[in-house]
Amino acid sequence: MNFIIKLLLSALAVIITSYLLSGVHVDGFTVALIVAAILALLNTIIRPILVILTIPITIFTLGLFLLVINAIIILIADSIVPGFEVDGFWWALIFSVILSILNSLFQGFSTNDRA
Question: Which domain holds residue 70?
Answer without folding.
Answer: 2-107
